[in-house]
Protein backbone atom coordinates (compact mmCIF):
# COMPACT_ATOMS: atom_id res chain seq x y z
CA UNK A 1 0.00 0.00 0.00
CA UNK A 2 2.82 2.38 -0.92
CA UNK A 3 0.71 5.48 -1.63
CA UNK A 4 -2.24 4.25 0.42
CA UNK A 5 -1.05 3.55 3.97
CA UNK A 6 -2.11 0.22 5.42
CA UNK A 7 -3.48 1.83 8.61
CA UNK A 8 -5.84 3.94 6.46
CA UNK A 9 -7.15 0.83 4.72
CA UNK A 10 -7.50 -1.02 8.03
CA UNK A 11 -9.43 1.99 9.32
CA UNK A 12 -11.82 1.75 6.37
CA UNK A 13 -12.43 -1.90 7.18
CA UNK A 14 -13.11 -1.05 10.83
CA UNK A 15 -15.47 1.76 9.78
CA UNK A 16 -17.37 -0.71 7.57
CA UNK A 17 -17.70 -3.01 10.57
CA UNK A 18 -19.01 -0.22 12.80
CA UNK A 19 -21.56 0.70 10.12
CA UNK A 20 -22.79 -2.88 10.34
CA UNK A 21 -23.00 -2.92 14.12
CA UNK A 22 -19.64 -4.54 14.96
CA UNK A 23 -18.23 -2.03 17.44
CA UNK A 24 -15.53 -4.19 19.05
CA UNK A 25 -12.05 -2.95 18.15
CA UNK A 26 -9.30 -5.29 17.00
CA UNK A 27 -6.29 -5.76 19.26
CA UNK A 28 -3.75 -2.94 19.07
CA UNK A 29 -1.19 -5.38 17.64
CA UNK A 30 -3.17 -5.70 14.38
CA UNK A 31 -5.21 -2.49 14.15
CA UNK A 32 -3.01 -0.99 11.40
CA UNK A 33 -2.85 -4.17 9.31
CA UNK A 34 -5.74 -4.53 6.83
CA UNK A 35 -5.16 -8.24 6.20
CA UNK A 36 -5.05 -9.06 9.90
CA UNK A 37 -8.05 -6.78 10.49
CA UNK A 38 -10.07 -8.62 7.85
CA UNK A 39 -9.12 -12.01 9.28
CA UNK A 40 -10.01 -10.84 12.79
CA UNK A 41 -13.34 -9.43 11.56
CA UNK A 42 -14.17 -12.62 9.66
CA UNK A 43 -13.88 -14.59 12.88
CA UNK A 44 -16.43 -12.28 14.54
CA UNK A 45 -18.78 -11.64 11.63
CA UNK A 46 -18.31 -14.33 8.97
CA UNK A 47 -21.31 -13.06 7.02
CA UNK A 48 -19.44 -9.83 6.28
CA UNK A 49 -16.23 -11.37 4.99
CA UNK A 50 -17.09 -11.12 1.28
CA UNK A 51 -18.09 -7.47 1.66
CA UNK A 52 -14.90 -6.69 3.58
CA UNK A 53 -12.81 -8.58 1.04
CA UNK A 54 -14.39 -6.56 -1.79
CA UNK A 55 -13.50 -3.35 0.06
CA UNK A 56 -9.95 -4.61 0.62
CA UNK A 57 -9.57 -5.61 -3.06
CA UNK A 58 -10.73 -2.17 -4.17
CA UNK A 59 -8.10 -0.57 -1.92
CA UNK A 60 -5.37 -2.97 -3.04
CA UNK A 61 -6.12 -2.13 -6.68
CA UNK A 62 -6.13 1.60 -5.87
CA UNK A 63 -2.75 1.15 -4.20
CA UNK A 64 -1.24 -0.45 -7.30
CA UNK A 65 -1.35 2.96 -9.01
CA UNK A 66 1.13 4.33 -6.47
CA UNK A 67 3.06 1.14 -5.79
CA UNK A 68 6.82 1.01 -5.87
CA UNK A 69 8.58 -2.30 -6.47
CA UNK A 70 10.94 -3.67 -3.88
CA UNK A 71 14.43 -3.03 -5.23
CA UNK A 72 15.51 -5.74 -7.65
CA UNK A 73 12.32 -7.79 -7.68
CA UNK A 74 11.04 -6.77 -11.10
CA UNK A 75 14.50 -7.32 -12.60
CA UNK A 76 14.67 -10.76 -10.96
CA UNK A 77 11.30 -11.70 -12.47
CA UNK A 78 12.40 -10.51 -15.91
CA UNK A 79 15.70 -12.37 -15.58
CA UNK A 80 13.86 -15.58 -14.65
CA UNK A 81 11.69 -15.18 -17.76
CA UNK A 82 14.77 -14.73 -19.98
CA UNK A 83 16.17 -17.97 -18.51
CA UNK A 84 12.79 -19.63 -19.24
CA UNK A 85 12.15 -20.29 -15.57
CA UNK A 86 8.55 -20.49 -14.41
CA UNK A 87 7.70 -17.84 -11.82
CA UNK A 88 4.75 -17.96 -9.45
CA UNK A 89 3.58 -15.10 -7.26
CA UNK A 90 2.13 -16.22 -3.93
CA UNK A 91 0.59 -13.52 -1.78
CA UNK A 92 -2.05 -12.70 0.79
CA UNK A 93 -3.03 -9.81 -1.50
CA UNK A 94 -5.81 -10.39 -3.99
CA UNK A 95 -5.02 -12.03 -7.30
CA UNK A 96 -6.73 -9.11 -9.03
CA UNK A 97 -4.34 -6.59 -7.45
CA UNK A 98 -1.33 -8.78 -8.20
CA UNK A 99 -2.30 -9.09 -11.87
CA UNK A 100 -2.90 -5.33 -12.02
CA UNK A 101 0.59 -4.76 -10.58
CA UNK A 102 2.12 -7.16 -13.11
CA UNK A 103 0.36 -5.34 -15.92
CA UNK A 104 1.48 -1.94 -14.65
CA UNK A 105 5.12 -3.03 -14.65
CA UNK A 106 4.84 -5.10 -17.86
CA UNK A 107 5.55 -8.37 -16.06
CA UNK A 108 2.42 -10.30 -17.02
CA UNK A 109 4.18 -12.50 -19.57
CA UNK A 110 7.03 -13.21 -17.14
CA UNK A 111 4.79 -14.79 -14.48
CA UNK A 112 3.30 -18.24 -15.02
CA UNK A 113 1.03 -18.38 -11.98
CA UNK A 114 -0.63 -16.01 -9.52
CA UNK A 115 -1.96 -17.39 -6.26
CA UNK A 116 -3.55 -14.59 -4.30
CA UNK A 117 -5.85 -14.47 -1.31
CA UNK A 118 -8.92 -16.62 -1.99
CA UNK A 119 -11.96 -14.34 -2.11
CA UNK A 120 -13.88 -14.34 1.15
CA UNK A 121 -11.59 -16.95 2.71
CA UNK A 122 -9.17 -15.16 4.98
CA UNK A 123 -8.72 -18.47 6.80
CA UNK A 124 -6.76 -19.65 3.73
CA UNK A 125 -4.24 -16.80 3.86
CA UNK A 126 -0.63 -17.61 4.69
CA UNK A 127 0.61 -19.19 6.87
CA UNK A 128 -2.06 -21.63 5.65
CA UNK A 129 -0.33 -23.51 2.79
CA UNK A 130 -3.33 -23.19 0.46
CA UNK A 131 -1.92 -20.46 -1.83
CA UNK A 132 1.50 -22.13 -2.03
CA UNK A 133 -0.15 -25.45 -2.93
CA UNK A 134 -2.32 -23.67 -5.51
CA UNK A 135 0.71 -22.08 -7.17
CA UNK A 136 2.59 -25.39 -7.09
CA UNK A 137 -0.36 -27.16 -8.75
CA UNK A 138 -0.60 -24.52 -11.48
CA UNK A 139 3.13 -24.76 -12.19
CA UNK A 140 2.96 -28.56 -12.21
CA UNK A 141 0.15 -28.46 -14.76
CA UNK A 142 2.12 -26.03 -16.94
CA UNK A 143 5.21 -28.24 -16.80
CA UNK A 144 3.16 -31.34 -17.66
CA UNK A 145 1.70 -29.49 -20.64
CA UNK A 146 5.15 -28.35 -21.77
CA UNK A 147 6.43 -31.91 -21.50
CA UNK A 148 3.47 -33.24 -23.48
CA UNK A 149 3.85 -30.53 -26.14
CA UNK A 150 7.55 -31.22 -26.56
CA UNK A 151 7.27 -35.04 -26.47
CA UNK A 152 6.65 -35.19 -30.21
CA UNK A 153 9.43 -32.78 -31.17
CA UNK A 154 12.66 -34.17 -32.65
CA UNK A 155 15.74 -33.79 -30.50
Provide structural commentary.
The structure is a single chain. The protein has 6 helices and 2 strands, in the order H-H-H-H-E-H-E-H. With 155 residues, it is mostly helical. Strands 1-2 form a two-stranded parallel ribbon. The radius of gyration is 18 Å and the shape is elongated. The mean pLDDT is 92.
Main-sheet strand order equals: 1-2
Strand content: 5-15%
Low-pLDDT residue spans: none
Number of beta-strand segments? 2
Largest sheet entry: 2 strands, parallel
Overall, the morphology is elongated
Query: What does the radius of gyration come to?
Result: 18 Å
List the helices and strands in order. HHHHEHEH
N-to-C span: 48 Å
Helix/strand structural class: mainly alpha
What is the overall pLDDT average?
A: 92
Number of helices: 6
The oligomeric state of the chains shown is single chain
Helix content: 40-55%
What's the SSE blueprint?
Elements: H1 6-19, H2 34-44, H3 49-64, H4 73-82, E1 88-94, H5 95-104, E2 113-117, H6 130-150
Parallel strand pairs: 1-2
